[in-house]
Amino acid sequence: MITKILLTVAFLAVMVGIGLYSRKHSKSVDGFVLGGRNVGPWLTAFAYGTSYFSAVVFVGYAGQFGWKYGLSSTWIGVGNAVIGSMLAWMVLARRTRLMTQHIDSRTMPDFFGTRFDSQGLRVIASIIAFIFLIPYTAGVYMGISKLFELGFGSAVSYEFWATTMAVLTAVYVILGGYKATAINDFIQGVIMLFGVSAVIFVVLNNQGGFSVAVDKLAALAPNADDLTQKGAAVYANFQPGDFASWFGPAKMSLLGVVILTSLGTWGLPQMVGKFYSITDETAIRRGTIISTLFALVVAGGCYFIGGFGRLFLPTAFDVAKGKFAFDAIVPQMLAGLPEALMALVMLLVLSASMSTLASLVLTSSSTMTLDLIYRDRKDHEARQVVVMRVLIVFFIVISLLIALRPPQFIAQLMGISWGALAGAFLAPFMLGLYWKGVTKASVWACFAWGVGLTVANMLAGMVGGKPFLNPIDCGAAAMLGGFIVVPLVSLITPKLKKDAVESIFSCYQ
């Protein structure tokens, strides 16, 4: 216990210290939000990766999807590395950096407003971002707090850990802005790499080694609780050995999760914003490699370990609550770890969660300040920075209140958030970087599609007891549907002024 406390206190002290060190970079708006657009490949790659993977992945997604799909859940981590990291950098990084600097855009809503010549798009995009980043943030709180309860016991409550993490994240983001976040992300990323590698080794060793663990997994079948719940359709075509097979018991369902968690990052403001800040094209090439390898180890490792969850927990069904307790699976797997390793795991999840939280609160506060409150850039910059700092506190308080009374599993909170954001933003943002023919009306249509589908599905679940689709599949449908909505509407609606569009695209020449 002393080791855990000392390591945690030292870690948090370093984070706050970096916030104090980075104050000199956070006096202007560009410095506070973008680090002066002068952040190198290592810091940017680690900032991208640590913002991508948090307790939502390690505790929520790895547990739930490892339980459902077994060892094949590892493909989710591979998809995160190849699609969510490597391809995202290759397709988006260079064009995002060049166009956003050319049009002097500092946030994703700002991009929509300038690229498509519409202050209305800018305002609505900022509201969408602010609202739907909150459930994701609540999910991050839940994941870290549940694991800390395991590490420190019941003497300290879930509410205490959630509140403590919220306060400390607010402190270092308010002090140092993006620069503090990026430096902290690098340190936190190194901890995550070591932590995931150590957990893989110890967890498999506890089961007698890799081959023995796979044999045990192959011998398992869905239990009675699995087959009586809403998710029973996942196992409709189950074959013996599916939990240890290449593609698991439900290939199409698995594909939906891969799409949501991998392609979704392409349309999330806190992820795409990393490309605004990177120094040059050489840094982009190096950052692509670093980010991909980081994702392969961290995401691949998390889902790989989650696939063995059934060996540690006979059933994930909570009889008292009448539903599955998926968020308890990974903490149960880690319950027997040596104390020293448990301390490392706690730092791992704390690192992942605080980096993601920092990115989320910085994105939400800057979006509301620059795109809703101070749309006129001539307003005093120091005042804008102050407002951003105040909104960081507001955003953290709101998401903390949701986390203390969570309505869904961690994975479902993330599905709602990613579905609405990426469903609304992904297609118009990506196509807007490449295609001159995207129209203003098509962006409005995609906003309505992504948010409308997500909200309608959520309301159907609240009112009728059963949504049209589960939040994961709904999120994937919202994203992919945007690539149909934007081209179709663009073909039948008025085009933007040709001279203005040519001027914007001249940045690529």
Describe this structure in words.
By secondary structure, the protein is mostly helical. It has a single domain (41-508), classed as Sodium/glucose cotransporter. 74% of the residues lie in helices and 1% in strands. The chain has helices at 2-21, 29-34, 41-52, 55-69, 74-102, 108-115, 119-152, 158-206, 210-218, 224-228, 251-263, 269-277, 281-306, 329-334, 339-373, 381-404, 410-434, 440-463, 471-492, 498-505; strands at 317-318, 323-324. The chain has a two-stranded antiparallel sheet. A hairpin with a 4-residue loop joins β1 (317-318) and β2 (323-324). α3 (41-52) packs parallel to α13 (281-306) and α11 (251-263) crosses α19. The chain is globular. The model has no long low-confidence stretch (mean pLDDT 82).
**Total domains, how many?**
1
Mean pLDDT: 82
Globally, the shape reads: globular
**Helix share of residues?**
over 70%
In N-to-C order, the SSE pattern is HHHHHHHHHHHHHEEHHHHHHH
Low-confidence stretches: none
Content of β-strand: under 5%
Largest beta sheet: what is the strand line-up?
1-2
- Pairing-aware structural class of the strands and helices? mainly alpha
Number of strands: 2
Biggest sheet features: 2 strands, antiparallel
Cα Rg = 22 Å
Just name the CATH architecture: Up-down Bundle
Q: Which homologous superfamily in CATH is the superfamily?
A: Sodium/glucose cotransporter
Quickly name the level 1 CATH class: Mainly Alpha
> Treating each run of at least 4 consecutive H or I residues as one helix, how many helices?
20
